[in-house]
Amino acid sequence: MSANEQSGEPIVIVVEPEQAGARLDAYLAERFPEYSRVHLRRVIGSQRVTVDGVATKAAHRLRAGQRVSLVLPELPRNGPVPEDIPLDVLYEDEHLVAINKPANMVVHPAKGHWSGTLTSALAFRFDQLSTIGGANRPGIVHRLDRETSGVIVVAKTDRAHFALGKQFEARTTRKEYVAIVVGVPNRDRDRIEQPIGIHPYQREKMAIRANHPTSREAETFYEVMERFRHHALVRVEPKTGRTHQIRVHLAHIGVPVLCDRLYGGRSSITVGELSGTSDETVVLSRHALHARRLALKHPFTGQPLEIEAPLAGDMQQVLEVLRGQQP
User: Fold this and answer.
1) Catalytic residue among 25, 84, 145, 314
2) Does the annotation mark 145 as catalytic?
């Protein structure tokens, strides 16, 4: 590593009980998704990562309460390049801003996605954003998958970022999503409690994995809002925040999110395929998942704050087609 890569203040993380047993490289890859696991292994191999003060190997199995300290190299880009990209602002004050993120927008720069990101749009629009997340993630407190639309909260100050981050870690925020799924759940509402870990052979996927070192407990509540012939509209509240949690859990009970390439097997659908006609117009080309509502406490006043994003247009079009087929 070069001299500039070795600069920076150490990051210290305490391993939670639910993360015990995870490999060090897998644990860091989940915590710092903007870095590839290969890159993180190089950092570990250069002895820039210690566990309880001792440099160790990538395959080291972590124990609850251990302190992981590391210095991460700078990413190839020094922060997002400001870009004049329109933003749908749902709420704003001097401490935070809430954005209705469009589908197919990456939240922060990463390999293969250096432009067109939410952080690039934020950097152009706002003079001040928090710095806690690092140069490539100014203001970013939590994430949404690239294809997921809806509410995302951004911190303008470090104080707001810290307070909001504590709420997400303590699970005191309430996140509500809506999804269009393939198939109809056999229950009006239910709670899914299944551990989620890294997929055994597909690196980009997660999977239901009991008693595996990478697995962490995960809980999702769902409720059916509308039933159609072969689809349903469901309201979903994840109680934990695992990677791909909603998508993995819904696929697990046999109703994958519509157009979910990873967990449903297809990435687009036409009007004809939904309606049984010959119309070949593509009506959806991303997974049908929308972050509709986020409830939390204001980081400065402590007052309840609830932010809602209207359903994305492509998902609304799918519902109009499905409703048109109802008897």
Assistant:
1) 145
2) yes
